[in-house]
Amino acid sequence: MQYKFYVDGEWRHDEHQPFVNANGGVMNTIFITGPDMPPAAFSPSNMDVDDFSQRVVDPSQDSIPRMSAADLEMSRHRISALLSNRTAYELLPESGKVIALDVNLPVKQAFHILYEQGIPLAPLWDFGKGQFVGVLGPLDFILILRELGTHGSNLTEEELETHTVAAWKEGKAHISRQYDGIGRPYPRPLVQVGPYDNLKDVALKILQNKVAAVPDGSYPQYFRHSSSSLPILQQPICSIPLGTWVPRIGESSSKPLATLRPHASLGSALSLLVQAGVSSIPVVDDNDSLIDIYSRSDITALAKDKAYAQIHLDDMTVHQALQLGQDASPPYGIFNGQRCHMCLRSDSLGKVIERLANPGVRRLVIVEAGSKRVEGIISLKTTMSQIGKTLLDSGWLAARSTEVNDDGEQLTTTNPPSLGPKSPWMEAAVPGTVLGTLLKNKSIPDPFYGLENETITDIADSGRDYYTFWFSTHFQCKRLLNQYVHLNFRAINYSAEVYVNGHKIVLPKGMFRRHTLDVSDILRPPDSDNLLAVIVHPLIILGLYLPREAKIGKDVAAQYVEGWDWICPIRDRNTGIWDEVSISVTGPVRIIDPHLVSTFYDDYERAYLHVTAELENKSTWSADCSVNIQVTAELENGVCLVEHLHTENVLIPARGNIHHTFKPLYLYKPELWWPNGMGKQNLYDVLITVVVKEFGESDSWMQPFGFRKIESDIDSVTGGRLFKINGEPIFIRGGNWILSDGLLRLSKERYRTDIKFHADMNMNMIRCWGGGLAERPEFYHFVMSTVWQEFWITGDVDGRGDPVSNPNGPLDHDLFLLCARDTVKLLRNHPSLALWVGGNEQVPPKDINEALKQDLRLHPYFTTQLLPDKDSDPSVYLDGTRVYIQGSMWDGFADGKGNFTDGPYEIQYPEDFFKDTYYKYGFNPEVGSVGMPVADTIRATMPREGWEIPLFKKGADGFVEEVPNRMWDYHKYIPYSKPGKAQLVNYIQYRALFEGWSSQMWTKYTGVLIWKNQNPWTGLRGQFYDHLLDQTASFYGCRSAAEPVHVQLNLASNFLEVVNTTPKELSDVEIEASVWDLDGNCPYSKVFNKVYAPPKKAVKISEFKYPKSENAKPVYFLLLKLYRASDKTVISRNFYWLHLPGKDYTLLEPYRKKRIPLKITCNAVNVGPEYELEINVHNTSRADLAKNALQDYGNRNVGLLQKFFGRFGGTEDSNRGLKVVETEGSDPGVAFFFRFSVHNAEAEKQDTRILPVHYSDNYFSLVPGESMSFKISFAAPTGMKKPPRVMLRGWNYPDGFTVFG
Questions:
Q1: What does the H/E/C string look like for 374-392?
Q2: Residue limits of the CBS domain (predicted)?
């Protein structure tokens, strides 16, 4: 082994030890030439030595012999088996050297080290963590140069000298960011393999993680003497779906080949490398003949004479950059070796692999004999392939069935559909619904705008045929011998017939069931299109809008579509292919619905993972299988750690199914999954693979899994249902969820935003209401809180509505149970799922209810805490880990007996929420209030006549009647009872609701769920954020009240309270209470010392006596701060606007005229469309009373990262380089009820908002001298050239002003 160290600015090593150069790789390993290894021979030219001008091949594809499917399959099996039996350790040479870089090296030194050593990339070592934490490669330098060039800056030597590799990597995370469950960026994990990993796993890891290389080695020697036993190695590469080709030449496995001209700018070359996601691009002349190749690693040549600091990317050509590299001659470099390694399309795969095995050869350019015209490129990575799933989520067409003359057989054989002026076919929304497709093609108006839904034909009036639609697409699938192809529909509504290449398959009815169709024997050849057509039929029993009928419950489907008191009817009743469609390819054995269960012992120090999986053998012979399970954890630094690897052998009879239960896997002190507010949502990746003897890997399945235990029982003190997570009681503060969108326009992006909003509100439970969906796996993937999942029964529809309908629930009880069981299998492995509930305000019919109780019974471990030998493994149960409750008002919810004891749903007096008389029972599953969206949303979703506020009419008896306009009434407006400011009321209502419940935590209540969190359409009630994803003030009232540690005023008793929902006591804390009047004076201020808040308790601290004082103001502001006495760190801040008993808020209206002086400081980071802003707002009035200095933005070193990301703003603080805005106001007082909004400065439409936006807080107020910092993050619309504009509006500045942009 040759060791080389960079110490005190110089290299120290034995330069006389031999080694062979290697042109890059993820391992950065350079191998020494051994006695049995011939020395590498390099041509002095840039081309390899083969004489391509003398080789002649027949270009006709017809002249190339095709390998039989049997030979192809046999080759694949043998290669797979061979790689499975060889380890990465066997590739390591007897000696070699590895160059690693310290993460704290300056960027400049790292850049020069790579250049001097002639290596393109190197692993990064963190001495603090004692491990490798990443890789520094040419892409890093490409991104640095591109982004600096984009922002009009030149990279200076000083900046490279002072900024470390670690600092750059932190900045790079903003460029190629990925997101966790609530939208927070996290680094891409470091991909690494162990010495004893088998080579097949190494290859799959490279493919799955999309890394570009493997260590240089001699593994193809395993194949050199096997050409006769591996027929695939004799096959010409143009007949195999490998590599990247120019159109119409080879069977491309990816996107078309990109090329460069020598006069192209270096900047364009670097951009193409990044955008195309490739490591090299051929350089061709005007005849497309190969001249050279430009690779990512060539960027290190710019280190010569510090060329990077002297050139501009758009001024240097690719030819000049390549010449610079050839002239560089680094002391240990690769630049004098062969650059272009070539082959012909007729070359066999075996020859290609042998050439790729040579040191330094990472890819071969496929050229035409004689002309050297480029035809394609093939790399070592592209010689690998894998089994997997392909989504069919694009390229769909749709047409109304009554307008299509062909049947399914014709549509998938002789007359495939196409678009055209007279064609009934249109582009389809799949996944999606008929109404979504019609809206996409502008065939109907937006049903959520104004009264437009009234103009759309309802299915109850038109009949089912009107919304019966054809959906059609095509796909290719390369199936080998003994491989099986399944067409999967994760859900359709309501029934369908499927046609594939003229063959018909019926999909039976049911909205919540999966369909898996074996289409192996009806597929066309690999290079041909398979035609797919699906005719989807609507619900059978259509029903009319409530309250006239409630027949929607006769089918097994979502019930909200018929219309409710909060939504208009969905005209097509959600007919369509509304969830994922995919093609999956497996070997003879496939894995079906594994069940993962965790059990714990010794106070959660010992954990066991229990796994049972169904295995189906599709073949006609017994399958001898190795079933493997791997448990992997992602460490905080992005490194993946294999916690467990286990293999068991099973024999599956021909055409047979077995349920295989693994031996429990032991883990010591696993990182537990916790819900929002209690800890981190730690997840492990559980990977199951099945390898069939004489075949190889047949199928694989992967699921993120959280180790946690959820317990639930009825609390003996409150009578409410009590939940425990990992042994810790959790006080439930959450809300009811309908679904993301009423037209089922579901997406990961929308789910990510929805779930982050819920996490931002500090909610810890989401109830998926029974009239909505069985939520999708993508929803559960992002969820951070616990989830209550309900089945499809509601009191309104199933026997308790007015009029009574469906007293026996759905017509087909067996279908309901089939859908319920399939839903359990789909969702049961998600750690957030806390309980199953039979229905909303109703229990299922007796036979269904009894069946669900039996199916979802708890395993004895989850009732006795023991796992006796006589009990079966918990993973063999359908679920067995979480409770089943028969209805939302039974068994610890509401009165526990099913009486209508949830609610109320209208505006409340805030102090009532704190009173003992307000609600009698321990857990309220539904309580709501008003929920108006902001005015911008009203204007965006209604024409002008819908902008009028309601009329208020006072009757002779003094009762005030609120009369909304017709559009507000159609959008389900809830009256506010008297004129006022909707967002002020929203904030007060929902903060008081959560504070009132928290005030009696564990003494009277165990939890509460608000009705409801959001709207799946543009409704005017029950929402913390609207359908356009703009938050209301109630969002931030809820956020404040539900924080884990909270200081509050009991509005009924006037006592200060501290609510501590955490397991840790608070002893070193104090409370500051200050009162501010409308003139900016502070007539009351008091500090409460030695406050003690025990864990998981709400405690009274002291009475707030200001309202009883002699000169108390009729309207005043109260600011509460809970902070640590030791360092004054604020733990909780709460701001109230209050009036004395018998008074009202009338005096706040003239207060709008006050102009409070503000100073706003803004710093922005922008990478592509992503923006992250940090804004500090300072109320500069009454400086004599100011206690808080503006400390958020001290003197900062504006260096490489700031220059890289760019800074925006007009006026800049000379000391900070940050944009500063100051208002011209001079009135002393509280800056009251301000909110940020983000706008598209280029938009010409009326609604210029950019949505969604994530604010760390909003709807805030500042007392004199106080400052607060806010973080704002969002993505700007595609194509927007100007920076977005951030506005700040408030009570004192209703028109607002720009603080950024």
A1: EEEEEECHHHCCCCCEEEC
A2: 91-153, 253-311
Buried b (16+ CB within 10 A) or exposed e, 989-1004: bbbbbbbbbbbbbbeb
Binning pLDDT at 50, 70 and 90, where does residue 765 land?
Answer: very high
**d(C-alpha 447, C-alpha 435), whole Å:** 9
Does the annotation mark 497 as catalytic?
no
Give Cα 1086 to chain centroid, integer Å.
46
Q: Closest by alpha carbon to 296, among 319, 324, 277, 317?
A: 277
Concerning whether 409 is annotated as a catalytic residue, the answer is no
How is residue 190 annotated by DSSP?
A: B
How far out from the chain centre does Cα 1159 lie? Answer: 36
How many percent of the chain have pLDDT more than 70? 78
Eight-class DSSP state of 402: G
Chain centroid to Cα 530, Å, comes to: 32
Dihedral, CA atoms, 655, 657, 663, 668, nearest 10 degrees? 110
Residue of 73, 147, 368, 841 with catalytic role: 841
Q: Which residue did the predictor score with more confidence, 682 or 643?
A: 682
Check pLDDT > 90 for residue 64.
no
Which two tokens mark 558? 């979502």
The closest alpha carbon to 380, from 23, 19, 20, belongs to: 23
Give SS3 for 127.
coil
Among 698, 707, 714, 542, residue whose Cα is nearest residue 623? 698
β-strand partners of 243: none
> 10 Å Cβ neighbour count for 661?
17
pLDDT in tens, 303-361: 666 676 667 777 888 888 888 766 544 443 333 345 688 999 888 888 887 787 776 67
Q: What is the DSSP string of 519-537?
A: -GGGPPPTTSPEEEEEEEE
Dig out the tokens for 1064 from the structure: 């840790």
Cβ contacts of 940 within 8 Å, gap of 6 or more: 1028, 1246, 1247, 1249
Using a cut of 0.85, tell me whether the model's pTM lies above it: no
Question: Is the distance from CB of 1073 to CB of 1102 less than 8 angstroms?
Answer: no
789 closest CA partner among 759, 819, 756: 819
Would you say how long the chain is, in residues?
1301
Question: Where does residue 708 rank: exposed (0-12), middle (13-18), buried (19+ CB within 10 A)?
Answer: buried
Q: Is the pLDDT of residue 1196 over 60?
A: no
Residues 483 and 526 sit within 8 Å (Cβ to Cβ): no
Give, in degrees to the nearest 5, the angle at Cα 974 between 968 and 980.
90
Q: What is the structure's pLDDT at 51? A: 43
Q: How far apart are CA 133 and CA 636, in angstroms?
A: 10
Alpha carbon 938 to its chain's center: 29
What letters, b where the CB count within 10 A reaches 16 and e where it falls short, cover 270-293? Answer: bbbbbeeebbbbbbbeeebebbbb
Token pair of 729 as six digits: 């009681």
**Annotated catalytic residue within 549, 580, 775, 926:** 926
Question: What are the tokens at 1109?
Answer: 């004082």
How many separate helices (H) and strands (E) can be counted in the chain?
23, 61
Q: Which residues does 954 contact at the CB level (< 8 Å), separation at least 6?
A: 960, 961
Residue spans of alpha helices (H) in 630-732:
none
Crossing angle of helices 165-172 and 138-150, rounded to 10°: 70
What φ, ψ does residue 624 adopt, rounded to 5°? -90, 110
Q: How many Å apart are CA 1095 and CA 718, to the nearest integer?
A: 19
**Are the CB atoms for 96 and 33 separated by under 8 Å?**
no
The structure tokens listed for 1000 are: 């009696």
Check: CB of residue 873 under 8 Å from CB of residue 867: no
* Single-letter residue type at 1080: G
Q: Using DSSP, state whether 563 is helix, strand or coil.
A: coil
**What are the phi and psi torsion angles at 1089 (to 5°)?**
-90, 165
Distance CA 1227, CA 1100 (A): 36
Residue 1004 φ then ψ, to 5°: -130, -30
